[in-house]
């Protein structure tokens, strides 16, 4: 892993005390041959994690709902104690043959939720896979009162009561995503 480049650009003064006050809003680094980025969402304050693959990667241009063949490598991989991923649930249900969506196959925080280029800029030749930390059991420190009301109306009652996924956690998830993408090269 190369040195990290951090940027801070969000006014978090109205979010109250918490670890987010001492964190940057963006962290970028290189892990192996992959561009890695943690990016805080301005409105809600939750993190998203991204890994960019170059044009030579097998999955360049592939969406996260792409169906992949279940291989022995994935059936026999090491299970992390205390953590159940979507692929573990899938395999434990006896689904060991056939195809599975890439977003389910990859073990990262609540699965992949992004596969695309970034807006025009320095990473134009990369395809990014990503995840977000804005799920039912995640805490978003910048969620505005209007957002909380909206999420209560759609029965996402834990949106403002869950666990805050700090930068250290997000960085580990991003690194784990990069390592999985390396295996799929």
Q: Can you walk through the features of this model?
A:
This protein has 185 residues and is of the alpha+beta class. It folds into two domains: 5-63 and 108-183, no CATH class; 65-105, no CATH class. Helices cover 22% and strands 22% of the residues. The protein is built from five helices and eight strands; from the N terminus they run βββββααβαββαα.
N→C terminal distance? 18 Å
Uncertain runs: none
Radius of gyration: 17 Å
Q: Roughly what fraction of the amino acids lie in strands?
A: 15-25%
Number of strands: 8
Tell the overall outline: globular
List the domain count as a whole number.
Answer: 2
Level of helix content?
10-25%
Strand order of the largest sheet: 1-2-3-4-8-7
Determine the number of helices (DSSP H or I, runs of at least 4 residues): 5
Main sheet makeup: 6 strands, antiparallel
Task: Give the helix/strand class.
Answer: alpha+beta
Order of helices and strands: EEEEEHHEHEEHH
């Amino acid at each position: 892993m190369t040195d990290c480049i951090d940027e801070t650009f969000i006014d978090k003064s109205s979010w109250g005390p918490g670890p987010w006050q001492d964190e940057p809003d963006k962290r970028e680094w290189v892990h192996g041959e992959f561009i890695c980025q943690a990016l805080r969402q301005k409105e809600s304050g939750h993190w998203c994690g991204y890994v960019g693959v170059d044009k030579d990667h097998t999955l360049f241009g592939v969406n996260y709902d792409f169906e992949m063949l279940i291989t022995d490598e994935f059936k026999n991989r090491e299970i992390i104690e205390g953590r159940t991923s979507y692929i573990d649930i899938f395999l434990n249900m006896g689904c060991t043959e056939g195809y599975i969506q890439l977003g389910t196959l990859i073990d990262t925080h609540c699965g992949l939720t992004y596969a695309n280029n970034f807006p025009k800029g320095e990473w134009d030749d990369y395809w990014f896979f990503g995840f977000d930390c804005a799920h039912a059991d995640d805490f978003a420190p910048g969620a505005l009162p209007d957002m909380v009301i909206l999420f209560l109306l759609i029965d996402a009652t834990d949106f403002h009561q869950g666990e805050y996924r700090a930068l250290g956690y997000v960085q580990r998830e991003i690194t784990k995503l990069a390592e999985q993408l390396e295996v799929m090269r």
